[in-house]
Amino acid sequence: MVKALTASLVIFAVMLGWLWVQAAYARFARRYPELGPFRGDGGCGGGCSCGKGRCERD
């Protein structure tokens, strides 16, 4: 039981940490626009499913 609770808390902490990193990155991109635009997650991940049922490869 303790292991399950610990694992849940670790996963929650990692997710909160990831949200903090994304917010810090957005603040940094706003502060220094000369370094390029803010690049978010990109929606669906950029895989073949984003191509509406087709996957074109070079």
Helix and strand topology:
Elements: H1 2-31
Strand content: under 5%
Q: Count the helices. How many?
A: 1
Shape: elongated
User: What percentage of residues falls in helices of 4 or more residues?
Assistant: 40-55%
- Biggest beta sheet summary: none
Radius of gyration: 18 Å
* Low-confidence runs of at least 5 consecutive residues: none
Structural class: mainly alpha
**H and E order:** H
Oligomer description: single chain
Quote the distance from N terminus to C terminus: 50 Å
Average pLDDT confidence is 81
SS elements, strand count: 0
List keywords for this structure.
single chain, 58 residues, mainly alpha, 1 helix, 52% helix, 0% strand
Task: Give structural notes.
It is built from one helix and no strands. The longest helix has 30 residues, at 2-31. The radius of gyration is 18 Å and the shape is elongated. It has one helix at residues 2-31. It has 58 residues and is mainly alpha-helical. The mean pLDDT is 81. The chain has a domain at 1-33. It starts with a helix and ends in a 27-residue tail after the last helix.
Entry summary:
It is built from 1 helix and no strands.
